[in-house]
Amino acid sequence: MSNAIPRRSWLAVVLGATLLNACVTRTVNSASELAPAMVVERFLRAANSNDLDTMARLFGTRDGPIANRESQKDADDWMFALASVLRHTDYQIMSEQIVPGRRQEATQLLVRLVNGERRYELPFTLVQSKRTGWLIENVPVDLLTNRRGK
Fold first, then answer.
1. What pLDDT shows up at residue 12?
2. Of the residues 2, 14, 62, 119, which has the fewest C-beta atoms closer than 10 A?
3. What is the pTM of this model?
4. CA atoms of 150 and 142, how far apart (whole Å)
5. Which residue, among 139, 138, 136, has the nearest Cα to 31 in the 3D structure?
6. Are 125 and 138 in contact (CB under 8 A)?
7. pLDDT given for residue 22 in this prediction
8. Given this model, what pLDDT does residue 145 score?
């Protein structure tokens, strides 16, 4: 008696594994499908690569991303300024907390940015927009520009 799996059984196992993988794996394409931490991750990655379009799709208010509300030039200027200040070599999401008075629509993530020897902790405020999901609403960049890192 052989321990080999019959060809038909082997084919069924491969086909089943492929179908299972197809059911479990999916690509996230829009901000509406992203959790707050993923939005911050994509935003910071876009900032490091000057991907202003992605940044403008992930930054906004309850009314939607600035990419849909501002001219391309205004959105580019704003996101370029943010990208310049948020450039980093590493980051870590430290914690998530509620935003008092806005518990149903907003959350705040404390993010540690590392740039060389400097470390900064910034509270990113994210808001659930009416149509597009989580968006970064506020990053207090004055904490980066007005003081030295720890």
1. 52
2. 2
3. 0.75
4. 15
5. 136
6. yes
7. 44
8. 83
Contact 43, 136 (CB under 8 A): yes
CA pair distance 96, 115, nearest whole angstrom: 22
| CA Rg value for the chain | 21
State pLDDT tens for residues 26-52: 344 444 446 999 999 999 999 999 999
Cα 25 to the center of its chain, rounded Å: 19
3-state secondary structure the chain: CCCCCCHHHHHHHHHHHHHHHHHHCCCCCCHHHCCHHHHHHHHHHHHHCCCHHHHHHHEEECCEEHHHHCCHHHHHHHHHHHHHHHCCCEEEEEEEEECCCCCCCEEEEEEEEEECCEEEEEEEEEEECCCCCEEEEECCCHHHHCCCCC
Please write the tens of the pLDDT for every residue from 75-114: 999 999 999 999 999 999 999 999 999 999 999 999 999 9
Query: For 83, what's the count of Cα atoms within 13 Å in the CB-facing half-sphere?
Result: 21
What is the Cα–Cα distance from 18 to 25, expressed in whole angstroms?
A: 10
Angle at 109 between CA 73 and CA 104, to 5 degrees: 90
